[in-house]
Amino acid sequence: MKLRLLKINCLVLLLLILNVSCVKDTPFYPGDRKPSVEKPEEGSYTALTQKLINTKKIISTVVGDTTFQVSNGVDATEIRYTNIEGKAMQLFILAMDLKQKNVTLKVATPFDKTEFTKQTVLNMAKVVDKPGNIVLGGINGDFYNISTLVPRGIVHKDGKIIKDNFSDNSDAPQQALSFFGILNNGKPFIGDKSEYNSKAAELKEALGGGIIFLKNKNIITQSFIGVDPRTALGYTEDDKIYFLVADGRNPSYSNGLTYAELSIIMKAFDVKDAVNLDGGGSSTFMVKDPISKKLEVKNKPSDGSEREVANSWLVISNND
């Protein structure tokens, strides 16, 4: 009887382990096309991978990298590597050119409503994805109160102010510190929360953020040293936006990034200003496959499945 119970308990434990660790592995490359280089040889890396190699501070060995054009002015890149400490890493980058005609950046909220609730990034995108408003990709947005579901920072959507204040962050010192937005003139802007009141009238789309780790191309050193899954965004002087998601908390697959590493990566991409967004299990990287036209989550969220979050940033094409 004891032996039978032991076997049952072992089986239950195995099923629990499998349930936690198994995440749907969506191929990064579009359609059925595999990348031309699974394990690239030196000199054949994507442009972004080469920039990280050149820093000599991020990558020890490139395991694989893939890039493809989602649409005109929008490119997706995946980089698999071991870092300089010999640990596995996986990065996902969506680059968009704000100067590209018919491509824009918009705030998404759960069910496309103004009420504070939660929904996955993928489902937020599906609600608004339609002719004339084609979703090309997106990432999760601001931190939020897990009890009330209220975002920690401000929310501007379609030129309307949904939330105009920053929540108390005494219990979460890395949150409710900043904001990122698209101004009425189409320019991107990252500001400290102290700058919000002077900029509020100019913000067409905006969400709160966390630590600003890069300002005017200068790295801002942080006292927080955690290695975590990360979501971040930044922009260059010529209005190119970089969305970055780093998976973590899965040692054999991807460990996560420190703020120092995040800063070096964004600086290598020639980013001027960059801010950290909600990370951990919230980190989500979604892109539309240019062949199948399906919206797909490409990263592996550390919870084991996509988390419902308070808001997100979506790259939108106005072409039908």
Describe this structure in words.
- The protein is α+β, with helices and mostly antiparallel strands.
- The chain has one domain.
- The protein has helices at 2-21, 47-55, 121-128, 196-199, 259-268, and strands spanning 59-71, 74-83, 88-97, 103-108, 134-140, 155-157, 160-163, 178-183, 188-192, 203-209, 212-215, 218-219, 230-235, 240-246, 273-276, 285-288, 295-297, 312-317.
- The strands form three sheets. An eight-stranded antiparallel beta sheet has the order 1-2-3-14-13-15-11-12.
- A hairpin with a 2-residue loop joins strand 1 (59-71) and strand 2 (74-83).
- It is globular.
- Residues 1-24 have low confidence and may be disordered.
- InterPro entries: NAGPA.
- Residues 1-25 form the signal peptide.
- This is Phosphodiester glycosidase domain-containing protein.
- Residues 137-315 form the Phosphodiester glycosidase domain.
What is the element layout, followed by pairings?
Blueprint: H1 2-21, H2 47-55, E1 59-71, E2 74-83, E3 88-97, E4 103-108, H3 121-128, E5 134-140, E6 155-157, E7 160-163, E8 178-183, E9 188-192, H4 196-199, E10 203-209, E11 212-215, E12 218-219, E13 230-235, E14 240-246, H5 259-268, E15 273-276, E16 285-288, E17 295-297, E18 312-317
Antiparallel strand pairs: 1-2, 2-3, 3-14, 4-18, 5-16, 5-18, 6-7, 6-10, 8-9, 8-10, 11-12, 11-15, 13-14, 13-15, 16-17
Signal peptide: 1-25
Pfam families: NAGPA
Organism: Sphingobacterium paucimobilis HER1398
